[in-house]
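are you around this afternoon, could really use another pair of eyes. what follows is a protein written twice so to speak, once as letters and once as C-alpha coordinates for the fold. i want to understand how the C-alpha coordinates follow from the sequence so walk me through it. anything you notice is useful, everything is just below.
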Amino acid sequence: MKRKIALITMAAVMALSVTACGGGSDSGKSASNNSSGSEVANKDKPLVWFNRQPSNSSTGELDMTALNFNKDTYYVGFDANQGAELQGTMVKDYIEKNIDKIDRNGDGVIGYVLAIGDIGHNDSIARTRGVRKALGTGVEKDGDIDSAPIGTNADGTATAVKDGTIEAGGKKYVVRELASQEMKNSAGATWDAATAGNSIGTWSSSFGENIDVVVSNNDGMGMSMFNAWSKDNGVPTFGYDANSDAVAAIAEGYGGTISQHADVQAYLTLRVLRNALDGVDVDTGIGTADDAGNCLTKDEDYRYSEEERSYYALNVAVTEDNYKDFTDSTKIYDKVSKQLDASKSPEKKVWLNIYNASDNFLSSTYQPLLQKYDDLLNLKVDYIGGDGQTESNITNRLGNPGEYDAFAINMVKTDNAASYTSILSK
Protein backbone atom coordinates (compact mmCIF):
# COMPACT_ATOMS: atom_id res chain seq x y z
CA MET A 1 0.00 0.00 0.00
CA LYS A 2 2.81 2.41 0.90
CA ARG A 3 4.50 1.71 -2.46
CA LYS A 4 1.23 2.44 -4.28
CA ILE A 5 0.79 5.74 -2.46
CA ALA A 6 4.38 6.72 -3.28
CA LEU A 7 3.84 6.02 -6.97
CA ILE A 8 0.65 8.10 -7.02
CA THR A 9 2.43 10.96 -5.26
CA MET A 10 5.33 10.83 -7.69
CA ALA A 11 2.95 10.92 -10.67
CA ALA A 12 1.20 13.98 -9.24
CA VAL A 13 4.48 15.81 -8.72
CA MET A 14 5.56 15.07 -12.28
CA ALA A 15 2.24 16.32 -13.64
CA LEU A 16 2.59 19.59 -11.75
CA SER A 17 6.13 20.14 -13.04
CA VAL A 18 4.88 20.83 -16.57
CA THR A 19 3.29 24.26 -16.50
CA ALA A 20 1.61 25.60 -19.62
CA CYS A 21 2.22 29.17 -20.72
CA GLY A 22 1.01 30.98 -23.76
CA GLY A 23 -1.58 28.34 -24.60
CA GLY A 24 0.80 25.57 -25.71
CA SER A 25 1.56 24.17 -29.16
CA ASP A 26 -0.84 22.38 -31.45
CA SER A 27 1.71 19.67 -31.97
CA GLY A 28 1.31 17.50 -28.90
CA LYS A 29 3.91 15.15 -30.24
CA SER A 30 6.75 13.45 -28.39
CA ALA A 31 10.20 12.89 -29.76
CA SER A 32 12.46 9.93 -29.29
CA ASN A 33 15.49 10.08 -27.06
CA ASN A 34 18.68 9.98 -29.09
CA SER A 35 21.13 8.82 -26.47
CA SER A 36 24.20 9.00 -28.71
CA GLY A 37 25.03 9.53 -32.34
CA SER A 38 26.49 6.04 -32.67
CA GLU A 39 23.25 4.35 -31.58
CA VAL A 40 20.83 6.13 -33.92
CA ALA A 41 20.80 5.91 -37.71
CA ASN A 42 21.46 9.24 -39.42
CA LYS A 43 18.08 9.09 -41.11
CA ASP A 44 16.40 8.97 -37.70
CA LYS A 45 18.28 11.82 -36.06
CA PRO A 46 16.53 15.12 -35.31
CA LEU A 47 16.58 17.57 -38.21
CA VAL A 48 15.46 21.19 -38.40
CA TRP A 49 15.29 23.18 -41.61
CA PHE A 50 15.62 26.87 -40.84
CA ASN A 51 15.42 30.25 -42.59
CA ARG A 52 14.68 28.62 -45.97
CA GLN A 53 11.62 26.41 -45.99
CA PRO A 54 11.81 23.35 -48.26
CA SER A 55 9.61 24.34 -51.19
CA ASN A 56 9.33 24.68 -54.96
CA SER A 57 11.08 27.93 -55.88
CA SER A 58 8.71 28.51 -58.80
CA THR A 59 5.34 27.76 -57.21
CA GLY A 60 6.06 28.10 -53.49
CA GLU A 61 4.55 24.66 -52.85
CA LEU A 62 5.99 23.14 -49.69
CA ASP A 63 8.21 20.08 -49.96
CA MET A 64 6.31 17.87 -47.54
CA THR A 65 8.67 14.95 -48.16
CA ALA A 66 11.51 17.01 -46.69
CA LEU A 67 9.34 18.36 -43.87
CA ASN A 68 8.38 14.78 -42.96
CA PHE A 69 11.85 13.30 -43.40
CA ASN A 70 11.46 11.66 -40.01
CA LYS A 71 9.27 12.12 -36.96
CA ASP A 72 11.73 14.63 -35.47
CA THR A 73 11.90 16.93 -38.49
CA TYR A 74 10.61 20.51 -38.34
CA TYR A 75 11.02 23.88 -40.00
CA VAL A 76 11.79 27.09 -38.14
CA GLY A 77 11.40 30.49 -39.74
CA PHE A 78 9.09 33.45 -39.43
CA ASP A 79 5.62 34.29 -40.66
CA ALA A 80 6.55 35.66 -44.08
CA ASN A 81 3.08 36.86 -45.03
CA GLN A 82 2.47 38.62 -41.72
CA GLY A 83 5.88 40.30 -41.95
CA ALA A 84 5.35 41.30 -45.57
CA GLU A 85 2.04 42.92 -44.69
CA LEU A 86 3.75 44.78 -41.85
CA GLN A 87 6.47 46.11 -44.14
CA GLY A 88 4.00 47.30 -46.76
CA THR A 89 1.86 48.98 -44.11
CA MET A 90 4.94 50.61 -42.57
CA VAL A 91 5.90 52.15 -45.92
CA LYS A 92 2.36 53.35 -46.62
CA ASP A 93 1.96 54.84 -43.13
CA TYR A 94 5.28 56.67 -43.46
CA ILE A 95 4.26 58.19 -46.79
CA GLU A 96 0.92 59.38 -45.41
CA LYS A 97 2.53 60.82 -42.29
CA ASN A 98 5.30 62.63 -44.17
CA ILE A 99 3.55 63.50 -47.42
CA ASP A 100 4.64 67.14 -47.32
CA LYS A 101 8.28 66.17 -47.78
CA ILE A 102 7.93 62.83 -49.59
CA ASP A 103 7.01 64.18 -53.03
CA ARG A 104 10.43 65.68 -53.67
CA ASN A 105 9.73 67.28 -57.05
CA GLY A 106 6.09 68.11 -56.37
CA ASP A 107 4.79 66.23 -59.42
CA GLY A 108 2.02 64.42 -57.52
CA VAL A 109 3.65 61.05 -58.17
CA ILE A 110 5.23 59.07 -55.34
CA GLY A 111 7.92 57.07 -57.10
CA TYR A 112 9.65 54.15 -55.41
CA VAL A 113 12.33 51.64 -56.36
CA LEU A 114 12.42 48.08 -55.06
CA ALA A 115 15.41 45.81 -54.41
CA ILE A 116 14.32 42.17 -54.72
CA GLY A 117 16.42 39.53 -52.96
CA ASP A 118 15.76 36.24 -54.72
CA ILE A 119 12.89 35.80 -57.16
CA GLY A 120 12.60 32.13 -56.19
CA HIS A 121 12.63 32.62 -52.42
CA ASN A 122 9.24 32.53 -50.67
CA ASP A 123 10.25 35.28 -48.24
CA SER A 124 11.37 37.57 -51.05
CA ILE A 125 8.18 36.86 -52.99
CA ALA A 126 6.02 37.65 -49.95
CA ARG A 127 7.81 40.95 -49.24
CA THR A 128 7.52 42.13 -52.81
CA ARG A 129 3.82 41.30 -52.80
CA GLY A 130 3.32 42.97 -49.42
CA VAL A 131 4.75 46.29 -50.62
CA ARG A 132 2.83 46.23 -53.89
CA LYS A 133 -0.42 45.34 -52.13
CA ALA A 134 -0.10 48.13 -49.54
CA LEU A 135 0.78 50.76 -52.15
CA GLY A 136 -1.83 49.62 -54.63
CA THR A 137 0.72 48.81 -57.34
CA GLY A 138 0.15 45.05 -57.40
CA VAL A 139 -1.25 43.21 -60.40
CA GLU A 140 -2.93 39.84 -59.91
CA LYS A 141 -1.41 36.83 -61.64
CA ASP A 142 -2.51 33.23 -61.11
CA GLY A 143 -4.59 34.19 -58.10
CA ASP A 144 -1.92 36.25 -56.31
CA ILE A 145 0.02 39.47 -56.73
CA ASP A 146 2.73 39.27 -59.37
CA SER A 147 6.16 39.38 -57.69
CA ALA A 148 8.29 39.57 -60.85
CA PRO A 149 10.89 42.34 -61.19
CA ILE A 150 9.92 44.97 -63.77
CA GLY A 151 13.29 46.43 -64.76
CA THR A 152 12.36 50.11 -65.28
CA ASN A 153 8.94 51.70 -65.48
CA ALA A 154 9.34 55.44 -66.00
CA ASP A 155 6.05 55.86 -67.87
CA GLY A 156 3.95 53.46 -65.79
CA THR A 157 3.34 50.96 -68.61
CA ALA A 158 4.96 47.87 -67.05
CA THR A 159 2.63 44.87 -67.03
CA ALA A 160 3.75 43.28 -63.75
CA VAL A 161 2.71 46.39 -61.79
CA LYS A 162 0.24 49.22 -62.11
CA ASP A 163 0.01 52.75 -60.81
CA GLY A 164 -1.60 52.95 -57.39
CA THR A 165 -3.12 55.87 -55.53
CA ILE A 166 -2.82 57.21 -52.03
CA GLU A 167 -4.70 60.02 -50.33
CA ALA A 168 -2.85 62.17 -47.82
CA GLY A 169 -3.08 65.77 -46.67
CA GLY A 170 -6.34 66.24 -48.54
CA LYS A 171 -4.76 65.35 -51.90
CA LYS A 172 -4.67 62.24 -54.08
CA TYR A 173 -1.24 61.06 -55.26
CA VAL A 174 -0.20 58.50 -57.86
CA VAL A 175 2.12 55.77 -56.55
CA ARG A 176 4.48 54.26 -59.13
CA GLU A 177 7.09 51.51 -58.95
CA LEU A 178 9.81 53.13 -61.04
CA ALA A 179 12.20 50.18 -61.04
CA SER A 180 12.81 46.79 -59.47
CA GLN A 181 15.28 43.96 -60.00
CA GLU A 182 16.68 40.83 -58.41
CA MET A 183 19.94 41.65 -56.65
CA LYS A 184 22.09 38.83 -58.01
CA ASN A 185 25.83 39.19 -58.54
CA SER A 186 27.89 37.85 -61.42
CA ALA A 187 28.75 34.71 -59.45
CA GLY A 188 25.07 33.92 -58.95
CA ALA A 189 24.68 34.88 -55.28
CA THR A 190 21.33 36.54 -54.52
CA TRP A 191 20.35 39.10 -51.86
CA ASP A 192 23.60 40.81 -52.82
CA ALA A 193 24.21 44.10 -51.04
CA ALA A 194 26.93 45.30 -53.41
CA THR A 195 24.64 44.80 -56.40
CA ALA A 196 21.95 46.85 -54.66
CA GLY A 197 24.43 49.66 -54.03
CA ASN A 198 25.36 49.70 -57.71
CA SER A 199 21.70 49.54 -58.75
CA ILE A 200 20.67 52.62 -56.77
CA GLY A 201 23.42 54.51 -58.56
CA THR A 202 21.95 53.50 -61.92
CA TRP A 203 18.39 54.22 -60.84
CA SER A 204 19.22 57.63 -59.41
CA SER A 205 20.96 58.59 -62.66
CA SER A 206 17.84 57.57 -64.58
CA PHE A 207 15.10 58.91 -62.31
CA GLY A 208 16.74 61.57 -60.15
CA GLU A 209 14.20 63.39 -57.96
CA ASN A 210 11.42 61.14 -59.19
CA ILE A 211 12.62 58.61 -56.57
CA ASP A 212 10.77 59.47 -53.36
CA VAL A 213 11.06 56.16 -51.50
CA VAL A 214 13.48 53.20 -51.55
CA VAL A 215 12.27 49.75 -50.49
CA SER A 216 14.32 46.60 -50.04
CA ASN A 217 13.53 42.95 -49.31
CA ASN A 218 16.20 43.04 -46.59
CA ASP A 219 18.39 45.42 -44.60
CA GLY A 220 21.65 44.31 -46.17
CA MET A 221 20.57 45.61 -49.56
CA GLY A 222 18.64 48.48 -48.00
CA MET A 223 21.65 49.79 -46.08
CA SER A 224 23.85 49.49 -49.15
CA MET A 225 21.46 51.75 -51.06
CA PHE A 226 21.03 54.06 -48.06
CA ASN A 227 24.76 54.59 -47.64
CA ALA A 228 25.41 54.88 -51.37
CA TRP A 229 22.69 57.43 -52.14
CA SER A 230 19.52 57.67 -50.04
CA LYS A 231 21.03 59.15 -46.88
CA ASP A 232 22.72 62.03 -48.67
CA ASN A 233 19.58 62.77 -50.68
CA GLY A 234 17.13 62.54 -47.79
CA VAL A 235 15.15 59.66 -49.30
CA PRO A 236 13.57 57.27 -46.75
CA THR A 237 14.68 53.68 -47.18
CA PHE A 238 12.87 50.65 -45.81
CA GLY A 239 14.35 47.22 -45.21
CA TYR A 240 13.70 43.99 -43.38
CA ASP A 241 15.54 42.03 -40.63
CA ALA A 242 16.21 44.75 -38.03
CA ASN A 243 19.99 44.38 -38.37
CA SER A 244 21.82 46.54 -35.82
CA ASP A 245 23.23 48.95 -38.41
CA ALA A 246 19.79 49.45 -39.98
CA VAL A 247 18.12 50.07 -36.63
CA ALA A 248 20.81 52.61 -35.72
CA ALA A 249 20.37 54.29 -39.12
CA ILE A 250 16.72 55.11 -38.34
CA ALA A 251 18.07 58.07 -36.35
CA GLU A 252 19.78 59.22 -39.58
CA GLY A 253 16.79 58.92 -41.90
CA TYR A 254 16.43 55.20 -42.58
CA GLY A 255 12.67 54.85 -42.78
CA GLY A 256 12.19 51.60 -40.89
CA THR A 257 12.66 47.86 -40.86
CA ILE A 258 10.95 44.70 -39.69
CA SER A 259 12.19 42.53 -36.85
CA GLN A 260 11.50 38.91 -37.69
CA HIS A 261 12.14 38.03 -34.04
CA ALA A 262 15.52 36.47 -34.79
CA ASP A 263 15.94 35.85 -31.07
CA VAL A 264 12.86 33.62 -31.10
CA GLN A 265 13.86 31.92 -34.36
CA ALA A 266 17.37 31.10 -33.17
CA TYR A 267 16.01 29.70 -29.93
CA LEU A 268 13.43 27.56 -31.73
CA THR A 269 16.03 26.28 -34.20
CA LEU A 270 18.01 24.67 -31.40
CA ARG A 271 15.16 24.04 -28.97
CA VAL A 272 13.26 21.59 -31.19
CA LEU A 273 16.51 19.63 -31.57
CA ARG A 274 17.14 19.72 -27.83
CA ASN A 275 13.68 18.39 -27.10
CA ALA A 276 14.03 15.55 -29.59
CA LEU A 277 17.42 14.61 -28.16
CA ASP A 278 15.99 14.60 -24.64
CA GLY A 279 12.96 12.56 -25.65
CA VAL A 280 10.50 15.12 -24.30
CA ASP A 281 7.45 16.69 -25.89
CA VAL A 282 8.44 19.05 -28.69
CA ASP A 283 6.47 21.86 -27.00
CA THR A 284 8.73 21.83 -23.93
CA GLY A 285 10.30 25.24 -23.36
CA ILE A 286 8.25 26.60 -26.26
CA GLY A 287 4.55 26.78 -25.40
CA THR A 288 4.99 24.79 -22.17
CA ALA A 289 7.47 25.87 -19.50
CA ASP A 290 10.52 23.68 -18.99
CA ASP A 291 12.09 22.99 -15.59
CA ALA A 292 14.19 26.17 -15.87
CA GLY A 293 11.16 28.34 -16.64
CA ASN A 294 11.80 28.96 -20.35
CA CYS A 295 8.55 29.55 -22.23
CA LEU A 296 7.34 31.56 -25.22
CA THR A 297 3.88 33.07 -25.69
CA LYS A 298 1.88 31.48 -28.48
CA ASP A 299 0.33 33.91 -31.00
CA GLU A 300 2.49 36.71 -29.63
CA ASP A 301 6.00 35.34 -30.10
CA TYR A 302 5.30 32.50 -32.53
CA ARG A 303 2.72 30.28 -34.15
CA TYR A 304 2.91 26.58 -34.97
CA SER A 305 1.44 24.83 -38.02
CA GLU A 306 1.04 21.13 -37.34
CA GLU A 307 0.16 20.45 -40.98
CA GLU A 308 3.35 22.13 -42.19
CA ARG A 309 5.44 20.92 -39.24
CA SER A 310 6.65 24.50 -39.01
CA TYR A 311 7.30 27.04 -36.28
CA TYR A 312 6.93 30.67 -37.35
CA ALA A 313 8.20 33.60 -35.30
CA LEU A 314 5.95 36.66 -35.51
CA ASN A 315 7.31 39.98 -36.83
CA VAL A 316 7.41 43.48 -35.31
CA ALA A 317 7.68 46.80 -37.18
CA VAL A 318 10.69 48.90 -36.13
CA THR A 319 10.28 52.63 -36.73
CA GLU A 320 11.38 55.95 -35.29
CA ASP A 321 8.85 55.38 -32.51
CA ASN A 322 10.40 52.23 -31.06
CA TYR A 323 13.82 51.64 -32.67
CA LYS A 324 15.72 52.22 -29.43
CA ASP A 325 14.23 48.97 -28.13
CA PHE A 326 15.93 47.04 -30.97
CA THR A 327 19.45 48.45 -31.00
CA ASP A 328 21.05 45.15 -29.94
CA SER A 329 19.95 42.54 -32.46
CA THR A 330 21.98 39.79 -30.76
CA LYS A 331 20.36 40.05 -27.33
CA ILE A 332 18.69 36.79 -26.34
CA TYR A 333 15.00 36.84 -25.51
CA ASP A 334 14.29 37.25 -21.79
CA LYS A 335 11.48 34.67 -21.81
CA VAL A 336 13.88 31.91 -22.89
CA SER A 337 17.17 32.89 -21.27
CA LYS A 338 17.48 30.25 -18.54
CA GLN A 339 20.28 27.64 -18.49
CA LEU A 340 19.20 24.00 -18.78
CA ASP A 341 20.33 21.44 -16.24
CA ALA A 342 23.16 19.44 -17.84
CA SER A 343 22.23 16.35 -15.83
CA LYS A 344 18.84 16.27 -17.57
CA SER A 345 19.97 17.72 -20.90
CA PRO A 346 23.55 16.50 -21.41
CA GLU A 347 25.81 17.87 -24.12
CA LYS A 348 24.99 16.76 -27.66
CA LYS A 349 26.72 17.54 -30.94
CA VAL A 350 24.90 19.42 -33.72
CA TRP A 351 25.90 20.08 -37.34
CA LEU A 352 24.55 23.45 -38.48
CA ASN A 353 25.18 25.37 -41.69
CA ILE A 354 24.63 28.94 -42.82
CA TYR A 355 23.93 29.06 -46.56
CA ASN A 356 26.15 32.11 -47.05
CA ALA A 357 28.82 33.12 -44.56
CA SER A 358 28.60 36.68 -45.94
CA ASP A 359 24.84 37.11 -45.47
CA ASN A 360 24.35 40.21 -43.31
CA PHE A 361 21.38 38.97 -41.31
CA LEU A 362 22.52 35.39 -40.78
CA SER A 363 26.14 36.22 -39.96
CA SER A 364 25.66 39.35 -37.86
CA THR A 365 22.39 38.54 -36.11
CA TYR A 366 21.24 34.92 -36.40
CA GLN A 367 24.52 33.09 -35.78
CA PRO A 368 25.55 35.21 -32.76
CA LEU A 369 22.15 34.41 -31.25
CA LEU A 370 22.55 30.71 -32.00
CA GLN A 371 25.94 30.76 -30.30
CA LYS A 372 24.39 32.17 -27.15
CA TYR A 373 21.53 29.71 -27.12
CA ASP A 374 23.73 26.68 -27.79
CA ASP A 375 25.43 27.30 -24.43
CA LEU A 376 22.09 27.65 -22.61
CA LEU A 377 20.78 24.44 -24.21
CA ASN A 378 24.00 22.45 -23.66
CA LEU A 379 24.59 21.88 -27.37
CA LYS A 380 27.99 21.71 -29.01
CA VAL A 381 27.39 23.14 -32.47
CA ASP A 382 29.71 23.03 -35.46
CA TYR A 383 28.91 26.07 -37.62
CA ILE A 384 29.50 25.63 -41.35
CA GLY A 385 29.48 28.72 -43.61
CA GLY A 386 28.58 28.31 -47.29
CA ASP A 387 29.41 30.47 -50.30
CA GLY A 388 25.78 31.40 -51.05
CA GLN A 389 26.02 29.95 -54.55
CA THR A 390 26.28 26.17 -54.60
CA GLU A 391 24.76 23.49 -52.41
CA SER A 392 27.81 21.27 -52.86
CA ASN A 393 29.99 23.84 -51.08
CA ILE A 394 28.03 22.86 -47.97
CA THR A 395 27.10 19.22 -48.54
CA ASN A 396 30.74 18.32 -49.28
CA ARG A 397 31.42 19.17 -45.64
CA LEU A 398 28.78 16.79 -44.36
CA GLY A 399 31.06 13.87 -44.98
CA ASN A 400 30.70 12.17 -41.61
CA PRO A 401 27.16 12.70 -40.28
CA GLY A 402 27.58 9.80 -37.92
CA GLU A 403 29.60 11.95 -35.50
CA TYR A 404 26.61 14.26 -34.92
CA ASP A 405 23.45 13.80 -32.87
CA ALA A 406 21.29 16.26 -34.82
CA PHE A 407 21.29 18.57 -37.83
CA ALA A 408 20.16 22.14 -38.58
CA ILE A 409 20.13 22.97 -42.29
CA ASN A 410 19.92 26.31 -44.11
CA MET A 411 19.78 25.57 -47.85
CA VAL A 412 21.12 27.74 -50.64
CA LYS A 413 17.98 27.03 -52.68
CA THR A 414 14.66 25.95 -51.23
CA ASP A 415 14.36 23.20 -53.87
CA ASN A 416 17.44 21.34 -52.69
CA ALA A 417 16.39 19.55 -49.52
CA ALA A 418 17.09 16.17 -51.15
CA SER A 419 20.76 17.10 -51.47
CA TYR A 420 20.95 16.79 -47.69
CA THR A 421 18.44 14.04 -46.95
CA SER A 422 20.12 11.77 -49.50
CA ILE A 423 23.32 12.00 -47.44
CA LEU A 424 21.50 11.33 -44.18
CA SER A 425 19.65 8.38 -45.71
CA LYS A 426 22.79 6.44 -46.62
User: Anything to note?
Assistant: The radius of gyration is 23 Å. The longest helix spans residues 80-97. The first strand starts at residue 19 and ends at 20. DSSP finds twelve helices and 19 strands in the chain.
